[in-house]
Amino acid sequence: MPYVIVVYDVQANRTSKFLKYLRRYLTHVQNSVFEGELTEGTLEEMKTTLESMLDPSESVMVYRMASEKYVERFVFGEDPMDDQQFL
Amino acid sequence: MPYVIVVYDVQANRTSKFLKYLRRYLTHVQNSVFEGELTEGTLEEMKTTLESMLDPSESVMVYRMASEKYVERFVFGEDPMDDQQFL
């Protein structure tokens, strides 16, 4: 299944809108970074939805790998994923 | 050559330090996101350096792909890469 990394850069008072939307599908790994597996269909929907949510001067980057096995992840400093193991 | 995506989450008054360091090796693609090709040696050095630069509560994520061909990139909203074509 495709694996995606999503990073958004939006106005401070609008982050909660993006957090709320992305949390439905992906894991929150850093301040403005989400990642996880998505079907192609959900990914296409997400791209359309994210684009429609943006105000001028805001941006979102979506990185897509064919599978999680193509990406290796190194975290330095606080790893929010650690906390999530206990939720 | 390995392809990396680096995302940092640091205190606002310390972003310039990270910008300055990462710009030496990678392309600045969004507020706190860099990407580009790196040799394994430079990647190892970068991981060590980034870790040493962090204050408590700050973090850096490094995603590594074996090559750029394993990642597809979608940008919505303002794409800082567009500007760089004219620099």
TrEMBL record, chains A, B:
Claim: NADP is one of the keywords in the record: no
Matching InterPro entries: CRISPR_associated_Cas2, Virulence_VapD/CRISPR_Cas2
Residue sites binding Mg(2+) per the record: D9
Name of protein: CRISPR-associated endoribonuclease Cas2
Subunit structure: Homodimer, forms a heterotetramer with a Cas1 homodimer.
Organism, as annotated: Halocatena salina
SUPFAM superfamilies given in the database record: TTP0101/SSO1404-like
EC number: 3.1.-.-
Essential cofactor(s): Mg(2+)
UniProt entry keywords in alphabetical sequence: Antiviral defense, Endonuclease, Hydrolase, Magnesium, Metal-binding, Nuclease, Plasmid
One Gene Ontology term of the molecular function aspect: RNA endonuclease activity
UniProt cross-references to PANTHER family, sorted A to Z: CRISPR-ASSOCIATED ENDORIBONUCLEASE CAS2
GO aspect biological process, one term: defense response to virus
Function: CRISPR (clustered regularly interspaced short palindromic repeat), is an adaptive immune system that provides protection against mobile genetic elements (viruses, transposable elements and conjugative plasmids). CRISPR clusters contain sequences complementary to antecedent mobile elements and target invading nucleic acids. CRISPR clusters are transcribed and processed into CRISPR RNA (crRNA). Functions as a ssRNA-specific endoribonuclease. Involved in the integration of spacer DNA into the CRISPR cassette.
Stated family: Belongs to the CRISPR-associated endoribonuclease Cas2 protein family.
HAMAP family, A to Z: Cas2 (MF_01471)
Highest rank taxon of the organism: Archaea
